[in-house]
Amino acid sequence: MLTGYTSVVARQDQVSSDLAGEAVILDLKSGVYYGLNSVGASIWNLIQEPRTINEVRNAILAQYEVESEQCDRDLLALLQKLEAEGLIEVRNETPA
Fold it and tell me: What pTM value is reported for the model?
């Protein structure tokens, strides 16, 4: 289960590219391409290094005009999809 303290990071076995503010990701294992809109691309750029979901959420809230509840729902949905596709690594951590 993903929580605010869960750490996420993009897996190393893919390549991605910026296309006019959007992102295209190629999974090298499956050969499948994925596309992300500008917000998704911002999230993808943030998780090139391990970050907690709270860190990603706060960065998105600072960058875009979005209600926090909507941000939470959309962020979790995207991260769950990326995890299901094997594009990110999820590390559950507990708060200090």
Answer: 0.90
